[in-house]
């Protein structure tokens, strides 16, 4: 894992804040791929019986995926942050999801997402992403998700 000083805070790309923030850091990002990390803490709203629930894995994947599209709303040229932006976004469909194992409290998960398709209009963006989540080398989760994102005006 990269050191924290080289990582990007996810808040630069998403409107989410605690307790609904399910990504700590963006490790790498470009216009087609993103890699994130999230440490599962005992007070997380999706922790049940010392495990991060399936819905938490889905929300982590959606936030990871939406950061690719989110950067077009939150950043101007030369990666300068915009603070005047408010967006709304949601999962418009889950095409496929496979949960292989649930991570335990205290573990860190790494989620990788790849943009499959993207449709931009003046009003909104719709995209399809594939994502995979790991804990260390063990694959926990795979999904293909559709997202709808638009700037609030």
UniProtKB/TrEMBL annotation:
Name of protein: Hotdog family 3-hydroxylacyl-ACP dehydratase
Any Pfam family matching the protein: ApeP-like
Source organism (scientific name): Flavobacterium arsenatis
SUPFAM superfamilies recorded: Thioesterase/thiol ester dehydrase-isomerase
